[in-house]
Amino acid sequence: MPELPEVETTRRGITPYIEGQTVKRVIIRQPRLRWPVPENLEQTLKGLRIQTVSRRAKYLLLATDAGTLLLHLGMSGSLRIISDGQTAGKHDHIDFIFADEIILRFNDPRRFGAVLWTTEPAEQHPLLKDLGPEPLQEDFSGDLLYDLSRNKKTPIKSFIMDSHIVVGVGNIYANEALFMAGIHPARQAGKISLTRYQKLAGCIQAILRQAIEQGGTTLRDFVNEAGKPGYFQQQLNVYGRVGLPCTRCQQILKEIRLSNRSTVFCSDCQR
Ligand code: ZN
Fold first, then answer.
1. Residue ranges covered by each domain of the chain
2. What is the value of pTM for the model shown?
């Protein structure tokens, strides 16, 4: 599933090709995504210029002076830049064709992705307005996590994966950040000290930055005709490594389920 780093990498991959470009035509082959693609989107977008390509949580926001296109990659979506004349495959649901014949192609085999249009300020959209801060921006900090967690009995891992608290900390990154910070994933959020939260916030940022940097090496895939944008595999210390030795102390890693998600940790290194 595309996580925040993949979405940010997608943003960086497509921006140089579509920012400042005018939409010439939109081809919708399959309007039934997670939510229906807005009717008349073809007419709505035609002739509009993409002013900026930004990201909020895992939504890509293509802003025009008439409104904003919201794109979400869901479970299996991807965006590619292709040149004219490439035949669409089975899961190539939407093409955004720009005046210079560059095409932004949305592919999504499982169709949990979304393509939506809003004429309100994007941050007011129902899907975006209640989201917590971006982990890589200044309003996110250990102090914030500490303040929001007081009296919370939620396991810390579920707490940091809650998008009302902070966005973009998916299962892999939660597992890895808690290992890096030395915090047991089932520990109650309300019982963790400010110092440990400050360390954890730094670890979340470090893990996400590392993933985004790694994504940078896949940027050329956005214009690769054969491939899909890379959903890159990071060097992982705990996620997917149950039963293997801890990379720090050699103890065998354990697995528990928290909020029904696989949670792998080292019972020596994480307290
Ligand atoms: Zn260990």
1. 4-124, 142-265
2. 0.91
